[in-house]
Design goal:
This is pyridoxal kinase. This protein is an alpha/beta fold and about 280 residues long. It is built from nine helices and eleven strands. About 40% of the residues lie in helices and about 25% in strands. The chain has a nine-stranded mixed β-sheet, sandwiched between helices. The chain has a two-stranded antiparallel sheet with strand order 6-7. A hairpin with a 4-residue loop joins strand 10 and strand 11.
């Protein structure tokens, strides 16, 4: 059985980060190994939450894995909250990712803005970590900050997206996935670039106007699982995008739904069926 190591925080309640990544990776028939970077009572969308930084545990965990000769078939990082964590991820990539694909999901912002705890220096440091990955999965906002591109507040066209992708290609990744591309109010798309094939693909689907926490984590978990299982980038993008859309529709159909995340659990059967 394949084994993916996913590294990000864990919110005890909140349907994001590790509580999303772990069940999705497992449902796709892959062992999910985790390295929590922090423990929160809930995600930060709640008014009250506790936070425990686990950065100091990373080296201890890494040392124990080394002693047990543990390896991974893929490494995937999500939200990382400090410069020190970025440095430690680079060390893990160098030691445990030499013969395995590495995906960095540069979770830094959305809607044209960085999250409040980040600044331009952090975006630049995240860019350096992205250069060490085989696959990166930025949304439009993150791609702009990674490439020092002004975010298009008044809309954009295919020329802008093409130029942005060219800037991302300079990072040298084997695969680039650019999420959240909308030319109109009805559709949302994902672009994928496969360097080995020198191939650019895109996949557009229905745009649901509501926004939910954790959908980026869902997308990255499903996409990377497909790639680790040996599928191509185009199919991985379609599978991940359809899964997220299906989960959002399941959520909206539930009158008693919560506000803090999507009912991805209801969409897991279809995800498994389409493997």
């Amino acid at each position: 059985m394949k084994r993916i190591l996913t590294i990000q925080d864990i919110s005890c309640v909140g349907k994001c980060s590790l509580t999303v990544a772990l069940p999705i990776i497992s449902a796709m028939g892959i062992e999910a190994a985790i390295l929590p970077t922090a423990v929160l009572s809930t995600h930060t969308g709640f008014k009250n939450f506790t936070f425990c930084d686990l950065t100091d545990e990373i080296d201890k965990i890494k040392t124990a894995w080394r002693a047990e000769n543990i390896g991974f078939d893929g490494i995937y990082t999500g939200f990382l909250g400090s410069f020190l964590q970025l440095e430690k991820m680079a060390e893990i990539f160098d030691e445990f990712g030499k013969n395995s694909p590495i995906l960095v999901d540069p979770c830094m912002g959305d809607n044209g803005k960085l999250y409040s705890i980040f600044d331009l220096k952090f975006a630049a440091a995240m860019g350096e970590l992205c250069k060490k990955a085989d696959i990166i999965t930025p949304n439009l906002t993150e791609a702009c900050f990674l490439t020092s591109t002004k975010y298009p507040q008044n809309g954009y066209d295919s020329d802008f997206v093409g130029e942005l992708l060219d800037k991302l290609k300079a990072f040298g990744n084997k695969k680039i996935v650019l999420k959240g591309i909308s030319y109109d109010e009805k559709t949302c798309g994902v672009f994928g670039f496969d360097r080995d094939k020198n191939e650019l693909t895109s996949y557009f689907h229905e745009l649901v106007p509501q926004r939910f926490h954790g959908t980026g984590d869902m997308f990255a978990s499903a996409l990377f699982s497909k790639i680790v299982l040996g599928d191509n980038l185009e199919n991985a993008i379609k599978t991940a995008a359809n899964f997220v859309l299906d989960a959002i529709k399941c959520t909206l159909a539930n009158e008693s739904r919560n506000w803090y995340g999507v009912d991805f659990e209801s969409a897991l059967p279809n995800l498994i069926k389409n493997l």
